Amino acid sequence: MLELLQLLQPKVEMVQEVATKSTKNQYQENQMQEPYKLFELNYGYDALEPYIDAKTVELHYSKHTKTYVDKANEALIGLNKQGLSEAQCYELSKQLDDNVGGVLTHQLYFNCLAKPKENGGVGGVYPTQGAFYEAVKMRWTSFENLKEALKKAGLARFGSGWVFLHQDLSITTAPNQEWPRGKKTILAIDVWEHAYYLKYQNRRVDYLENIFYVINWNYVESLFKS
């Protein structure tokens, strides 16, 4: 399993590594050892109840996210084949980029969630001191204001996509599986419908209100400080 910090290395380095391995003939066609593995969840499927239901977590992780891992590996295998045309290389590279983006966004998303505090977890517990706490106060006045800004960004994101909080405490959004570049990202909130549809149907506003009960701010803080 690749650790988060390894996954956060620029994607171009991943492609360069693949090219190097290809020239050394370390892999045979269709017998390539998969370099990407589905990361492990730090909690059970039901841990985020009642705010995110167990079935949604299971499908989101074991089906949707796993598909990105599988497609990334498929692209790597394809790029190791001989005699590819320029068009084939372009399509496989795009497939790799899109699906590695899916792995990165989902690993950060799931790592930023935790069992809610009313069930004995740390989800929804805001820091009350330290550098992260002071930085949020300076930029957003309070965690409640930061929450409202993230929620507003999620509601404004047209169609499928993501809301990101960065180390400088700026907020951006992106479509599909587009990983933010040029910034250190410390929180990702998935606003694709598959992240909430079973419980909330089309009510993204309710999902974005309730997800803050399971945000692991301790983890977000650790990325802020790293």
What is the count of helical runs? 9
Using only C-alpha atoms, the radius of gyration works out to 19 Å
CATH class designation of the largest domain: Alpha Beta
Per CATH, what is the topology of the largest domain?
minor pseudopilin epsh fold
Low-confidence runs of at least 5 consecutive residues: 1-33
Shape: globular
What is the number of beta strands?
Answer: 3
CATH superfamily membership of the largest domain: Iron/manganese superoxide dismutase, C-terminal domain
Percent of residues in β-strands: 5-15%
Q: Alpha-carbon distance between the termini?
A: 21 Å
**Architecture of the largest domain in CATH?**
3-Layer(bab) Sandwich
Task: Output the strand order for the largest sheet.
Answer: 2-1-3
Give me the strand/helix succession.
HHHHHHEEEHHH
* Mean pLDDT across all amino acids: 87
Largest sheet: 3 strands, antiparallel
How many domains, in number, for the residues? 2
Helix content: 40-55%
Helix-and-strand structural type: mainly alpha
